């Protein structure tokens, strides 16, 4: 049961990101709040890989160096044009479903994984500490950037719930 809720939480964050994307005027895609911060397109490119990066690594490449693996994913995502974001997130949703199909409830609760930055946790806890937190944090950054550069009428609910139908 816990596995399903965890998967749904990740997919819901991805779907909210898709809805937020539709609120970005194309002439604002390069908006950057400060010179040392990601632009909207750079944030979209990051969101297009960060939600599945660690679960994919833990299931498929645990003996490799995560940072090398992630650098390859990130380099590929940096080639993504903004108009590919919706399909990239659909790909991420499908990958999330495939990854979770391979994980048992027992593994979520009892399999220990190593964080690439040091430390370890049970698989479910590690997914919360990575995929869920990363998607939530960067989704909120996207929400705020849209609010900063447009006059879109976005409210708090738009950051937390799917305010439009799929």
Report on this structure.
With 166 residues, this protein is mainly alpha-helical. The protein has a single domain, classed as Up-down Bundle (Four Helix Bundle (Hemerythrin (Met), subunit A)), CATH 1.20.120. It has eight helices and two strands, in the order ααααααββαα. It has helices at 2-21, 40-50, 53-60, 66-77, 85-101, 105-110, 123-149, 156-160; strands at residues 112-114, 120-122. The protein has a two-stranded antiparallel ribbon with strand order 1-2. Helix 2 packs parallel to helix 5.
Task: List the keywords.
Four Helix Bundle (Hemerythrin (Met), subunit A); mainly alpha; two-stranded antiparallel ribbon; 166 residues; 8 helices
Architecture blueprint of SSEs:
Layout: H1 2-21, H2 40-50, H3 53-60, H4 66-77, H5 85-101, H6 105-110, E1 112-114, E2 120-122, H7 123-149, H8 156-160
Antiparallel strand pairs: 1-2
Instruction: Please state the CA-atom Rg, rounded to the nearest Å.
Output: 16 Å
The pLDDT mean sits at 93
Largest sheet at a glance? Answer: 2 strands, antiparallel
From the 3D structure, determine the CATH topology.
Answer: Four Helix Bundle (Hemerythrin (Met), subunit A)
The CATH architecture can be given as Up-down Bundle
List the quaternary state of the chains: single chain
CATH top level is: Mainly Alpha
Number of helices: 8
Number of domains: 1
Q: What is the CA-CA span between the terminal residues? A: 24 Å
Strand order of the largest sheet: 1-2
> Strand-and-helix sequence, N→C?
HHHHHHEEHH
Q: Give unreliable regions as ranges.
A: none
Structural class: mainly alpha
The counted number of beta strands is 2
Question: Which strand-content bin applies to the residues?
Answer: under 5%
Structural shape: globular
Fraction of residues in helix = 55-70%
